Amino acid sequence: MESSQALYLRTVKDIVDTQVYKIENPEGPLTEHDKEKIGEFGLIIKRGGLVAFPTETVYGLGGDALNASSSEKIYAAKGRPSDNPLIVHICDMKDLERITEDIPEDAVKLAERFWPGPLTMILRASSAVPRRTTGGLDTVAVRMPDNPSALELIRAAGGYIAAPSANLSGKPSPTTAVYVLEDMNGRIDAVIDGGENDIGIESTIIDLAGDKIQVLRPGYITNKMLSDVLGIRVETDPALLDPGCSKRPKAPGMRYRHYAPKGEVIPVRGTPEKVYEHICQGLENARKSGLRSGVICSADNASRYEADIVRHAGSLDDAEAAAHVFYTALRDMDDEGAEIIYVENFTDLGFGEALWNRLLKSAGSKWEEA
Ligand code: AMP
Ligand code: MG
Asked: Looking at ligand 1, which residue's alpha carbon is closest to its atom 12?
């Protein structure tokens, strides 16, 4: 009787406790102790468990990409629709062969230039990749992340980690281990705490398996950077830029509302002064309706708004700095109970397109024109 009781308690504890390992110095190289611990976490993945880990973009929720039941666990932990495919993370270019049918010359060029880094390529999948991992598709998304803990974990786990962002489906992507635990504590086996991510928004996704090479999700690597390497003009899937467009976005994940806090998000587009006036008017209306209001804006404007919660995300022409704090600002809005959240638009150029795209997703594809 006693022993079965003890066994029961241990089982429950095993289920609800997520182990956390903090990287000793996230800025420096991994220590021997880091490597030892990451090695243990790699074994957890090999045995079919789930481990969240830092990358240079956002935190990933990792399982064995070649094990269909691990992918199923990832979908369950996130509450993610099963037709929304996972990205397979590798740590060595030669590992690409096993999971793809043929590797186009363009993929090699892009990998040489941008891997390890925030670029995901869609390629034809080999039969080694379970269709649970690809959301039923015959193509597979692959990337090599630029983060020493991530690369070490992938190696320790056998070379292939399927990892979506480590948030509950629909929520903003986590940029710290604390945010991962907020969503995932008790749902996954372990998390590697590697501090705050460098970039703070997800990888660029480029399709190399379709009729036309195109960007399916904008990110840190811009169309211009891709065009320069490939010697052709690379454009974004038109369905993403115009949410009213009748075509469905080609990346399944881009069809869902995403990155969303509980409050209503309203991105506002226009010249800076018009945007400012438009938001002031919106805040005034919110006040009259008794709504708790929030604003995410440039540093310059932070003191000018009369909202219940104001978070600034750097300067208006620096989308990169804004991306870095964007998801944190959205999560803060949740923590502070904002019911309506106005967001100034950051530049439409280059990397700004990625930020605008995330904003539209978090707002359910609508915005206001100032
Ligand atoms: P996440 O892991 O949350 O950053 O999302 C990965 C996204 O990559 C998915 O939501 C899809 O939109 C996209 N994706 C993954 N695999 C494919 C694929 N084979 N074809 C097209 N898009 C894909
Ligand atoms: Mg995600």
From this structure: 253
Taking the C-alpha atoms of residue 300 and residue 317, their distance in angstroms, rounded to an integer, is: 12
Same domain, 186 and 290: no
**Model pLDDT for residues 1-50, shown as the tens digit of each residue:** 444 544 444 444 444 578 999 999 999 999 999 999 999 999 999 999 99
Report which residue type is found at 120.
T
Contact between residue 167 and residue 179 where contact means Cβ atoms under 8 Å apart: yes
The whole-number pLDDT of residue 350 equals 67
CA angle 116, 122, 126 (to 5 degrees): 100
User: What is the dihedral sign for C-alpha 355, 361, 362, 365?
Assistant: positive
Q: Phi, psi at residue 199, to the nearest 5°?
A: -95, -50
Dump pLDDT digits (tens) for 293-329. Answer: 999 999 889 999 999 999 998 887 787 788 888 888 9
For residue 164, how far is its CA from the centre of ligand 2 (angstroms)?
A: 5
Fill in the DSSP letter of residue 346.
Answer: P
Quick check: 345 and 356 in contact, CB under 8 A? yes
Q: What whole-number distance in Å separates Cα of residue 259 and Cα of residue 267?
A: 13
Tally of CA atoms within 13 A in the half-sphere of 317 that contains its CB = 1
**Dihedral sign (CA 292, 257, 214, 61):** positive
CATH code of the domain covering residue 80: 3.90.870.10
Asked if residues 268 and 370 have their Cβ atoms less than 8 Å apart, the reply is yes
Q: Which ligand is nearest to the CA of 216?
A: 1
Structure token pair of residue 9: 């308690």
Q: Does residue 204 have its Cβ closer than 6 Å to ligand 1?
A: no
In this structure, the answer to whether residues 151 and 294 fall within a common structural domain is no
- Considering its fold, how many domains does the chain have in total? 2
Classify residue 292: in a domain, yes or no.
Answer: yes
Are residues 171 and 188 in contact, defined by beta-carbon separation less than 8 angstroms?
A: no
The reply to whether 145 falls in a domain is yes
**Token pair of 307 as six digits:** 């909202």
Q: Environment class of residue 70 by beta-carbon count within 10 Å: exposed (0-12), middle (13-18) or buried (19+)?
A: buried
Which protein residue's CA is at the shortest distance from atom 11 of ligand 1?
253
Give the residue from 167, 193, 219 where a domain finishes: 193
Q: Which residue range forms the structural domain that includes residue 44?
A: 4-193
